[in-house]
Amino acid sequence: MKSRFLILLLAPTTLLHSALGASTTAAEDRLKAAVKEVLALAAVASSPADLARDLRPVLLKNICFDAMTRRAVGPGWRQFTAPQQEKAIALFTTLVIRTYGDKFTPGEHPNIQFKPASTPAPGRVEIPTTILYQGSRYEVVYRLEEAEDWRITDVVIEGISLVANYRSQFDAAFKKDGANGVISALTQAEDQS
Amino acid sequence: MKSHTSLLTAALLAAALTGCASPRKPATPAPTAAVGKSLSDGKSVKGATDDLDEYAVAGIADPLEPVNRVTFWLNHQLYTFVLRPVSKTYEFILPKPVRKGIYNVFDNVEFPVRFVNHALQGKFQRAGQETGKFVVNSVLGVGGLIRMSDKFPAIANVPVATTGQTFAKWGLGNGLYIVLPVIGPSSARDTAGLAGDVALNPVTWIGFIYGTWAWTIPVSAADTVSVLPEKLSQYDAATKNALDRYLSARTAYAQFREEQNRK
User: Fold this and answer.
1) DSSP labels for chain B?
2) Of A68, A73, B102, B197, which shows the fewest CB atoms inside 10 Å?
3) pLDDT tens-digit map of B170-219
4) Which residues of chain B does A111 touch, with a Cβ-Cβ cutoff of 8 Å?
């Protein structure tokens, strides 16, 4: 009787644990596949611009730019009209892809070590990695969430979150000129390249 | 990573491969949990809460923003028109292995900054690791030219320790955000800490040891030039795609220092 009670008590915990373990594995697999694909492209790219172009389809598949954009904008997102949201997502997507492409120097091969993932909440996984690149070591955490599939929603490099970093800039643009201010700032940033 | 340049690194890392926020509030909180929120593409995300309220901006008081912006702009001009040509020339003249060797030597020499601060923070194991790293690099690495410590996992990746971090560990808040000329983003606490780092840096001691300051300036200049290519490359990556370079650097600094203080 006592043991049955114990089993009943532990069963949900065990099920939850195995479910979280499965999701962690799926997220890890997804990230590793994406990283492998990106590194293969980076190895043959002749310039950051070419790399950004080649990376686009891969990153569109693996990064949830919608979530990334709305979180970077913050509560002001609710005041964006649908076309403004669409425009902001498109511009931010291009900016993030370009930012990502700029990280690679043709001919340099980063060495990435994956560390054990954690599950801060159901449907969310954080995967810490150590990247050795050009003689320097960087601690990079990938945050993934599950929609239809696992996708990256933020990248945190040495404690600096990509989303949080843009959030401060979007906040300022939104407070000044609303949604149009954000779109205008994004357009200017894109034109600066 | 060289300890005395980590403040600059913070700014340069900014939105780069993408400082001193309140230690009581995480600068970049991991998204919190709840159930059933959908993304704008209509796909349900398990465990999402109102994700618009996540990622509160990492904060550091900046009442001097108008002045800081001017200093930031001047620094940008300095990086672009003076330090970049110096860096390019340095890269042109010396091959990469030589530059790396010079960088390693200065990094190794700055061992006292890291050792003392680890000890002052009560992290004696790390102080021991730093000592081991210094001995290995000095002996096996020919005076620090080669970073042999990378081959020993136990000492390959010892976190950096600065006086600013020590002050944070002792409970001192950030104070104001300050953009220092040349160096870049800092805070009142880290500016005071920088003085400690300079005092603990053997490069500074040269003047005292030899009774003349004639060698201090060229050696310090060589130390600075040795880190320029790396720092400028990070600065470019950081500011190139920012909507507002100043804000990007400030937020990155706040997040970076928060992370460093947490380690």
Assistant:
1) --GGGHHHHHHHHSSS------TTS-SSPPPPB-S--B-TTS-B-TTB--GGG-SPPP----TTHHHHHHHHHHHHHHIIIIIHHHHHHHHHHS-HHHHHHHHHHHHHHTHHHHHHHHHHTT-HHHHHHHHHHHHHHHHTTTTTTS-GGGGSHHHHTPPP--HHHHHHHTT----SEEEETTTEEEEHHHHHHHHHHHHH-HHHHHHHHHS-STTHHHHHHHHHHHHHHHHHHHHHHHHHT-SSHHHHHHHHHHHHHHHHHH-
2) B102
3) 999 899 999 999 888 899 999 999 999 989 988 888 777 776 667 777 78
4) none
pLDDT, position A11? 54
Q: How sure is the predictor about B27, in pLDDT bands with cuts at 50, 70 and 90?
A: very low
For residue B18, the chain A residue with the least C-alpha distance is: A162
* CA separation for the pair A148, B12 (Å, rounded): 36
Structure confidence by residue, pLDDT tens digits, A29-40: 999 999 998 888
pTM here is 0.79
Q: Which residues of chain A have a CB within 8 Å of the CB of B14?
A: 160, 165
CATH number, domain of A132, equals: 3.10.450.710
Contact A164 B55 (CB under 8 A): yes
The C-alpha atoms of residue A93 and residue B210 are separated, in whole angstroms, by 57
> Count of domains in chain B?
1
Domain span including residue A185? 2-191
Query: Cα separation of B111 and B104, whole Å?
Result: 11
Q: Is B237–A99 a contact, with Cβ atoms under 8 angstroms apart?
A: yes
Q: How far apart are CA B258 and CA B165, in angstroms?
A: 9
Contact across the interface for A70 and B258, Cβ inside 8 Å: no
CB contact under 8 A, A124 and B44: no
**Mutation to test the B interface, candidates A96, A97, A138, A168, most B Cβ within 10 Å:** A168
What is the value of ipTM here, to two decimals?
0.81
Residue B41 lies in a domain: no
B52 belongs to a structural domain: no
Which chain A residue has its CA at the smallest distance from B234's CA?
A: A103
* Chain A residue numbers touching B247 (CB-CB < 8 A): 168-169, 172
Range of the domain at B136: 3-21+58-262
Do B33 and A122 lie within an 8 Å CB cutoff?
yes
Considering only the beta carbons, identify the residue of A120, A159, A165 that sits closest to B15: A165
Number of domains observed in the structure of chain A: 1
